[in-house]
Design a protein that fits this description.
alpha+beta; Metallo-beta-lactamase, Chain A; 8-stranded mixed β-sheet; 6-stranded mixed β-sheet; 9 helices
């Protein structure tokens, strides 16, 4: 694997007060820039958003799930010298509200062209999307605990669910005046033509991932999560058979950098080939308790072993 230059250290926009020990760690926006890849992760709790800013075209925002994202993103774009950019592509790996709930607010602040998976077209026309059941969502607690708890991010996700996307009994929400284009398997990301669009159904019927062969980087959405420094094929699905086919496809890629929708990025050789299967994540009350405590304290909550 080609050696990477050191990544920029993660930055916290607000630090906890060291003179007041607390169980609940006060976590701010986490910003992590991967220089060689040209991608920056913006994370609040378990909610990851990515800015592609070194593609030779317009910046691309992937999975703008939180309404407050625009306030985090625009100052960061200024830091990268992108303050004068007139157009941004906002692309979603799927239309769950925690991946698109920040789109309307972003469009209000900047000229963002919205791109959704092709399957979402039918949802906007009235078809009801399938979404994982609560018991399926509960299976990914190891990933939820593997990132620091951020109450601000959680509340922002609740706000976003009222604005755009799906995930509950109301079906697909979308502002009538907000236009969107659609992405299909084999397309390239607008503004970033070296990134390929891959259909990855299983977690949802509209799930997609974005693949950059040159840097061996996979923006996996929720098809592949991470826990304890390992890739993890999601157990949170609406279609297990489709998820298995997706897993086979993504395991065949020579992934060196996994940037998941939830969980910390994973770097190394054969990242997806060595991914944990859906039933191989941490289990048991002991793992749950350690994970919860680590999450609340702002540290790594899980080990994949």
């Amino acid at each position: 694997m080609r050696p990477m230059r050191p990544m920029r250290p993660m930055r916290l926009r607000r630090a906890p007060r060291p003179d007041r020990p607390r169980l609940l760690h006060e976590v701010a926006l986490i910003v992590e820039t991967l220089e060689d890849i040209g991608v920056t992760r913006l994370s609040r709790g378990i909610f990851n958003c990515y800015l592609i800013h070194n593609a030779g075209g317009d910046p691309v925002v992937v999975d703008p799930g939180l309404p407050g994202l625009a306030g985090d993103l625009l100052p960061l774009m200024e830091e990268f010298g992108l303050g004068g950019v007139t157009t941004v592509a906002a692309c979603a790996t799927h239309a769950h509200s925690d991946h698109v709930g920040g789109v309307p607010a972003l469009v209000d602040r900047i000229d963002a062209k919205v791109h959704l998976p092709e399957r979402v077209r039918s949802f906007l026309e009235g078809a009801k999307p399938r979404t994982p059941r609560v018991r399926d969502i509960a299976r990914i607690w190891p990933t939820s605990f593997d990132q620091p708890f951020d109450g601000h991010g959680l509340l922002d996700a609740v706000r976003g669910a009222r604005v755009a996307g799906y995930g509950g009994p109301a079906g697909m929400r979308w502002p009538d005046a907000l236009e969107a284009a659609f992405l299909a398997d084999g397309d390239h990301l607008p503004g970033a033509p070296e990134w390929d669009v891959l259909a990855t159904p299983g977690h949802t019927d509209d799930s997609m991932a974005f693949w950059h062969a040159g840097t061996r980087t996979l923006l996996s959405g929720d098809a592949v999560l991470s826990v304890g420094g390992r890739a993890w094929i999601t157990p949170e699905t609406v279609d297990d058979a489709a998820s298995a086919r997706t897993a086979e496809r993504l395991r065949s890629l020579d992934v060196a950098h996994l940037l998941p929708g939830h969980g910390r990025p994973v770097h190394g050789d054969e990242v997806t080939a060595r991914a944990l299967g859906p039933l191989q994540g941490p289990r048991g009350f002991g793992s749950f308790a350690r994970g919860l405590l680590g999450c609340l304290r702002g540290g790594r909550g899980q080990s994949a072993d």
